[in-house]
Amino acid sequence: MNLTRELLGxxxxxxxxxxxxxxxxxxxxxxxxxAWWSGAVLAHDASDDGRVAERIEAAERFYAERxxxxxxQVCPGCPPDLDRILADRGYRWDAPISLQTMDVAExxxxxxxxxxxxxxxxxxxxxxxxxxxITGGPRTVVENETRMLNRVGLRSAYVTVLADEEPVAIGRAxxxxxxxxxxxxxxxxxxxxxxxxxxxxxxxxxxxCEQDVPRLYLQVERSNTAACRLYAAAGFTxxxxxxxxxxxxHAPG
Length: 253
Ligand SMILES: CC(C)(COP(=O)(O)OP(=O)(O)OC[C@H]1O[C@@H](n2cnc3c(N)ncnc32)[C@H](O)[C@@H]1OP(=O)(O)O)[C@@H](O)C(=O)NCCC(=O)NCCS
Description:
With 253 residues, this protein is of the alpha+beta class. It has two domains: 2-99 and 242-247, Aminopeptidase (3-Layer(aba) Sandwich); 105-213, Aminopeptidase. Helix content is 31%, strand content 31%. It has helices spanning 2-14, 52-65, 82-88, 126-135, 142-151, 196-210, 225-234, and strands at residues 19-21, 27-30, 41-42, 70-74, 92-103, 116-121, 156-163, 166-176, 179-187, 215-221, 237-247. The protein is globular and about 60 Å long. Bound molecules: coenzyme A (COA). Residues 135, 169, 185-187, 192-198, 220, 224-227, 229-230, 233 line the site of coenzyme A.
């Protein structure tokens, strides 16, 4: 449970919100757009002090002031009755996520793939963003993501795979005190199933070893079969699952 809480805290630092509030003891995070990774409450205080409803109300006020949907991360480190209370308040269940880890103390060299080259940089590059623009799902707004990435204060690696000089696959690694978070994995549709994402993961594993942050973690939506298979084949294993509870904003009728 502590590992889950620790890794979700690291993931939050690697995807910084615009506004944060820790006044209630929970970590309330808000960002532009609808990205769950930067805009949810980390209710990681499982102490049963009878203040859960009060803290929920404080978070609801925080989001209401910003015209945003209230969203809570519900994980094993949260108060046991959090999920039930949110359900009773009309929150819908959303985005079940698998939290996975892998130790890369001895990374296996990736077999080169003919026609694909790997580039590892320490900052955002136009090619990286170009792949994000064509692969981002409905929750990804490139301008918001760019601002979020520019807020990251931890050392990072931006991995890009090129096919004939064209960027076709990306991933991002964030090193944080012994752990490396893996984020933003995506391959352009035309370049899928050629081993590009596997190359990105291998480059991240090498970077993690070089930086002496050799334990990897990532989060993947459980319904994402392609990504789950990619990570399982690479050696990741699940340490916990969690989900979100969301109360949408309704336009006044
Ligand atoms: C998931 C994703 C990054 C995989 O990229 P990719 O470059 O096509 O993956 P690779 O070619 O390196 O595949 C490596 C292995 O992953 C698994 N895999 C990848 N895509 C798969 C699919 N559609 N179905 C089943 N397994 C798949 C396979 O085990 C594959 O090995 P194999 O081709 O030898 O069987 C790509 O599908 C994608 O961009 N999806 C949309 C964005 C996304 O979901 N990102 C992950 C967020 S956590």
